[in-house]
Request: fold
Amino acid sequence: MSVYSFYIFDRHTECIYTKRWTEHHAPPTSRPSATGALSNGAADVPVATRRAMKLEDDAKLIFGTIFSLRRMVRQLGGADDQFLSYRTGEYKLHYFETPTQLKLIMLTDMRVGNMRTVLYQIWATLYVEYVVKSPLAPTEHPRGVGVANELFEGGLERFIESMFSPQP
Amino acid sequence: MASSSKAARLGEEVWKSRVDKINAEVLTLTYGTIVAQLCRDLTLPATANKTDYAAVNAELDRMGYNIGLRLIEDFLAKSNTGTCSSFRETAEVISKVGFKMFLNVVPQVTNWQGVEGKPQAFGLVFEENPLAEFVEYPDDGRAQDELWYSNILCGVIRGALEMVQMQIEAHFVTDVLRGNDTTEMRVTLVRYIEDEMPPDDE
Reply:
């Protein structure tokens, strides 16, 4: 089990927090499978280009994806429906949205199970406690100002560590 | 009504188990100090000590608004209520969970106006108001008619609901401090806020 990256988008559709975990978290088996997938080019191109792309482009892409998926899910499943995750050949994207339209997104490898409660925990125990309640952080976070404070960063780091460290 | 008793239970439970509590008098006195200071600071143009009560009301509302923007996240994280399906449900949750959780009072939801799809409004009648304990209005002949002492609550509700895609308008219509029989706030739904779209990428 490993985690690749984590994003928070606010209600103004802006990416206010990004965190990437370094490569050593990725299982060593991912490399042969990546090269093995070369034959079907369509699946491989996004993976190869993703590495090269800048962080913001990544975030924009992810937001676009979840924005459309969310809309589609609501059209098909009713206004209360939410999508939880999707999976590709390379990664799994987990999604959680609060009623205040804060969107938490985590990219992990494909074997990881339902992460909804984990994302909920990150929001309720870390984001609300350390970002929302911080008197020094602004109420809105244009360009992510005030989100990446020490307590939030540290808490997130430890929490993810505890989730993912017992490597099988 | 099933949903209202459910809200009441939830409010009770959250209040009992998940909220840090402080002495109510500390809150009362702190709030009183803020209002008193505003009354001293905000004076009518070209006067030294004639309070501009409209400005005090507006400032309290603004302070509340900024509190509400943050308070809603704490509220949602602790109460874990989902999205309300109607404005009526919103009213129930505000009174029975929201006010219960933060102030340990349950204002009565009354005087419903409008139906689904039309302009909707409700009143919140406060039987007790922890902010207004020990309060005496200044004896200048104007405070009684102009100051809304607990106006910060209007701002809190406005800010909190804006974060959950509801634009509302809130104001007090009566206050026991002004000599009325009840303290009532009216909350009017202006519109539901649409999802924001990401900026167009070139």
Q: What stands out?
A: The longest strand of chain B covers residues 183-192. Chain B touches chain A through 21 residues (CB under 8 Å). The beta strands of chain B are 108-113, 121-126, 166-174, 183-192.
